[in-house]
Amino acid sequence: MRRRSIFAWASALLALAGASAIGITVFRPAAAKPSTMLPLATARRGEFLVTVTCRGELVAEQSVQVNAPNVPNLTIVWMAPPNSSVKPGDAILRFDASGAQRQLKEKEAALAQAVATLDQAKAQAGITAEQDNLEIAGLKQAVELARIEASKAEIVSAIQGEENRIALSLAQEKLRVKQAAAEFNAASAKSKIGSTESQRNKAQAETELTRSRIAMTEIRAPAGGIVSYAMNYSQGWMNAKPFKVGDNVWPGSAVAEIPNVESLRLKGKAEEIDRGKMSAGQDARVILDPFPEKTFHGKLERISALTEQSFEWPPTRSFRAFAELGEADARLRPQMNGRMDIIVDRLPNAVSVPSKAVFSRDGRPVVLVPGKDALRAVYVEVLARNPDEVAVRGIDAGTQVALVDKLNEKAKDGQAK
Fold first, then answer.
1. Greater confidence, 392 or 7?
2. Cα 121–110–211 angle (5° rounding)?
3. What's the CA gap between 11 and 252, in Å, rounded?
4. Which of 26, 128, 295, 329 is the most buried (most CB within 10 A)?
5. What domains does the chain contain, in order, with CATH numbers?
């Protein structure tokens, strides 16, 4: 029994080992074979567009600048989101108005006090004038009575007549003195009223100014467009950032700009070698980096007469070309980067291949056409060239061409060996 058990265990182990060997043989992956296929492209026939490509950014030819009001101690407490669309009259900025409101209360109190002082001065002037008029009337009456007494000189004694004349002179002198005092009081009252009116007008003007400053703490859009906030250089040029909530603003400084979306143009750099091919009115295809799936079909509007120097290092000089987009898009924003392909010529019914498919043999352009056993070089004539494709003459439409120069690689390998 012991021998049988040992034999059974040995048979089981041998069967398990055989099954493992069979499994390894069955599931062993086949060796990978190197691929001999070449990347190919097909020559196509159709209209070939000769283009000049310029890189640039969107700029707005029409924009409205928004300046901070002439109000001291301006602090931004609310602002419309950057690059948001606004309509004329929409609020875009609000400044802290608590200080101005506190000043308004102080100015209103000073104005009320000035008005009360003016009313008091006018009332006092009226009372003084009435008193002076009353006294002048009494003195006039006394003068008349003295004149009557003086007229009795013929029927009274000489002494009495002389006393009456003296009394008349004194009454007249008192009247003149009182009239002068009344004139002085009137002039004094007028001066005081004028002074208090000046104080009232000053307090009223300061109150109106404070109210207007409070009204100016909210800035509304003067025109429709996109809100673009200016840079805040209060911390230096190196740390400049767009204005944000909490920043202090200098009175009268530029805080925002509202460009008109319909006036956006792509401003690109044109090289001097391409300047002679370009002219205003040519068709242009504009492709923006944020929206590569959309092509804007516009026109080349103008080209700068002189070159402009860039701020890059090393500095370069190039012409500036402006292309309109042909249509408006609400997603467009200033300073978006992109490119424009200016169509400078059209070749109808031309055969074109990718630019990677054209190689050089003995200084002449060739394309590599696959045959039964290997590639063969076919000389072609280059009619026009673009960055991505080339118009050629010498092959038919539908011809397969290689995108890799295997013949040249084999020649190099042979020379190396």
1. 392
2. 130
3. 101
4. 128
5. 49-58+260-416 (2.40.30.170), 64-95+220-259 (2.40.50.100), 99-216 (1.10.287.620)
